[in-house]
Amino acid sequence: MSFKTDIEIAREAKKKPIMEIGEKLGIPAADLLPYGHDKAKVSQDFITSLADRPDGKLILVTAINPTPAGEGKTTTTVGLGDGLNRIGKKAVICIREASLGPNFGMKGGAAGGGYAQVVPMEEMNLHFTGDFHAITSAHNLLSAMIDNHIYWGNSLEIDQRRVVWRRVMDMNDRALRDVVSSLGGVANGFPRQTGFDITVASEVMAILCLSKDLEDLQKRLGDIVVAYTRDRTPIYCRDIKADGAMTVLLKDAMQPNLVQTLENNPAFVHGGPFANIAHGCNSVIATKTALKLGDYVVTEAGFGADLGAEKFFDIKCRKAGLKPAASVLVATVRAMKMNGGVAKADLGAENVAAVKKGCPNLGRHISNVKSFGVPVVVAINHFHSDTDAEIEAVKAYVAEQGAEAIVCKHWAHGSAGIEELAHKVVSMAESGTSNFSPIYPDEMSLFEKIETVAKRIYHADEVIADKSIRAQLKAWEEAGYGHFPVCMAKTQYSFSTDPNLRGAPTGHSVPVREVRLSAGAGFIVVICGEIMTMPGLPRAPAAETIRINESGFVEGLF
Amino acid sequence: MSFKTDIEIAREAKKKPIMEIGEKLGIPAADLLPYGHDKAKVSQDFITSLADRPDGKLILVTAINPTPAGEGKTTTTVGLGDGLNRIGKKAVICIREASLGPNFGMKGGAAGGGYAQVVPMEEMNLHFTGDFHAITSAHNLLSAMIDNHIYWGNSLEIDQRRVVWRRVMDMNDRALRDVVSSLGGVANGFPRQTGFDITVASEVMAILCLSKDLEDLQKRLGDIVVAYTRDRTPIYCRDIKADGAMTVLLKDAMQPNLVQTLENNPAFVHGGPFANIAHGCNSVIATKTALKLGDYVVTEAGFGADLGAEKFFDIKCRKAGLKPAASVLVATVRAMKMNGGVAKADLGAENVAAVKKGCPNLGRHISNVKSFGVPVVVAINHFHSDTDAEIEAVKAYVAEQGAEAIVCKHWAHGSAGIEELAHKVVSMAESGTSNFSPIYPDEMSLFEKIETVAKRIYHADEVIADKSIRAQLKAWEEAGYGHFPVCMAKTQYSFSTDPNLRGAPTGHSVPVREVRLSAGAGFIVVICGEIMTMPGLPRAPAAETIRINESGFVEGLF
């Protein structure tokens, strides 16, 4: 069999003018700020005018732990959005923006795949509407103002060894991870060791994605802790007086981006924080706007449900007051096989035993999602190599867990392949059975919050943390940050902190290596393992073959 | 008297939808890529389709040496464009884009002033259509790929001490001028000393502004010399295989931006290279597109005519095959007085003697511009404090030089205040007297080119250069760069290299401190004095007061 690639399908898309897509949602032309003919931002004024409308129903798409086999979480998010529209529901999709830098290392990707994609793919992998560039500028303006403050006399008495605000660039550039700046003499300032992270790792990104409006944005930016004095007094962004100018730099970036699926249904693509040191969800403002405009909003969370859904529930929904009505857990037969011990090269052969052996990974995610009070259905994202016996094995297992698994063929057939799931999601959401609440209350101590996630979601026996880490958590509680949720940064490949431990491990420990305060975003980052915040390029980066070909198409990016 | 500020006037502008402005120029809606409702890019396809049309007439607006009194070169460029439209000519304005970073140091500025402005002012001082961000990304992708090449085995044998390609950021950040990168151990590469320039100083900016299409752009990017081996063999961007991906990053940025004046006339605002280490003109592609669409194109060059017009003629026109039909030299009575020795505080009082004493600065610029074969008229940009006697003194002086000086009141009255100049420009252009040629031929040796500019334009006695600099120029000639023009980098405040030497000095020397090869842009930079390529922020940066106010307007940026 030969299939068209995602980019071939995307290039054949019969896109409608973005003004028409907006019109379907009832957005007046004057409130849609076009970027070319296929992308637009929705004006803040229009968003403000929606405040009194009722909300649609929010559907979360999450997944099992990712494996090299691929799960198709975004593909299913897009497919379900198209499927809901197909069965007569007004549905809006909300997903994240892609980071530019990594596309020049490994090939960039579609938003979705097959016949369940969001377009324009090329722009979404390049500059798109400039949001990430605005975040880079806002972040680095603060950095420049900190060093400038020190240069001109340091009246805030910043301890130059305790500047915690680094710089960012949307590029995979390992040479910038660790630098000494301000060399070259008096005119260039005071030399100190610092470094760059990739833009998606910026706290400004997390803040933009959690802010409800420009006022909230500026307040949160002001709350960022940028440095400490010698006696450990925090210095805030507000003390540096950068919050106003940063807000000005971000005012357009705060407005959600509207694009469309291959089937001309509306999709908001907005924000893209790291899913480890941040919460990994699209922006609150896009989700809330979509809820005012659609009967259904389909969104996704980063990585597997242990990281992504947990943060979606405990950080995004908690902070934004969102109440998900139902959730979809994406799994594939192939991924079950890998969880059952099959190597990637052997995935083509039928192996029902391995599927059965891998299913407990899925089972644990089902019960985890249920523990937040949200009803869940499993979407089996269909691959051509799946056999009937393998599919039946997954279905039977899921039924034993008190849930249902539905085979979805949106990749091959678009919305026509996912009608059954769409109907199921509607019936779950309409049933009113969702009774969402975060897994821990605000008042719980920070360390107990970490333990709660580790034990109830990861099924670990214990959390291991040095005295200094526990003391730091205590200190933040005393400083008034005790009500913050915790943002867990661990490997996405396992429930444990060992990426090779597939399935549903028990008896493991969660070692906390470091904790960081994101005072503007409003969470405590808990780092369990090595977390890379500035990627490098591979030996033969994709950039080497990216070019505009004779037909004027971009080649090598996908 | 009380006047409205530029921003007050700009905010009262009755902007037309940008699609309407494009329509007036005959650009089909599908070929205008909107960015909001008041900015658009013109598609490359449309530009390509114009190839066989005849060109309109090109008018250069240049000025005397800048003084703290202000000359109003951009204001006059915009005013003249409006004036030509007023008298029934189809005129298009071409100016440069503003750099984002410096606006957070000192207050940003209008494009023009008073009733001769281009809008939207706010966006043009912020992210605009993202061109500079694209340039930053393309530049830094190459930087990352160079260090990545070294990291993965350095098969090109780059001498790490001889990497000449730095990084860029569109921010005033002195801490980045001089850094050591790749610290932190094996995983982060090989430590080396490097630094950041501001984006407008990037050779990528100069290249984008001189390229005629995407193919030419990629060829020029490939030509950039990024490093040398131990035996001084140059390593090109093409060797690093970054040219294709950089072109992809720049494909939208290459398309000119269309905006409008307060009088709803079309203006292309595109590109903005440094006017010292680069040529300081808007893009060739914008100018050429405008020439296909308008009967008249009014454009400007950076700084005074000694730097700006010289580079416009010797670099931009030479390379792009442009033939200016006439030029306008902007002067003010106030600036003449400062050239005549009056301090800024005393500019309010009539002082005919000082005006007369300062006029030789203007006189020399007149004869310099004429020496390129281009007819010239002087525009006296009128200030309310100018007295009749002072104006008459300037007019009389200019008449003695065989030229005409016309008082222009576009700042206060828009196009109605500049009709006389518009008629004069038309009669000069229609007369066919322009007989443009660059001041030196391609074949002249590089050092003789420097001498030609120094002697014929700056009226210096001699050029002083170390043996090592002369040897470097010779080496470049042998390497095949001898046909390049020279790009002089010296103070803009004087014909000499001493910024305090006003008027029309003679008998001075031009010391060449350093020469640099811009192999992609296609010129040799000749540095005469201190040139700063990464500005710093002042003690109280404008950013501290920039914010969105209660009415939703940006405050403090202007």
From TrEMBL, chains A, B:
InterPro entries: Formate_THF_ligase, Formate_THF_ligase_CS, P-loop_NTPase. Coiled coil: none annotated. GO terms for biological process: tetrahydrofolate interconversion. It is an enzyme of class 6 (ligase). ATP binds at T67, P68, A69, G70, E71, G72, K73, T74. PROSITE patterns: FTHFS_1 (PS00721), FTHFS_2 (PS00722). Keywords: ATP-binding, Ligase, Nucleotide-binding, One-carbon metabolism. The keyword Nucleotide-binding applies. It comes from the Bacteria. It holds the Pfam family FTHFS. Belongs to the formate--tetrahydrofolate ligase family. This is Formate--tetrahydrofolate ligase. One of its GO terms (molecular function) is ATP binding. Pathway: One-carbon metabolism; tetrahydrofolate interconversion. It catalyses: (6S)-5,6,7,8-tetrahydrofolate + formate + ATP = (6R)-10-formyltetrahydrofolate + ADP + phosphate. Its EC number is 6.3.4.3.
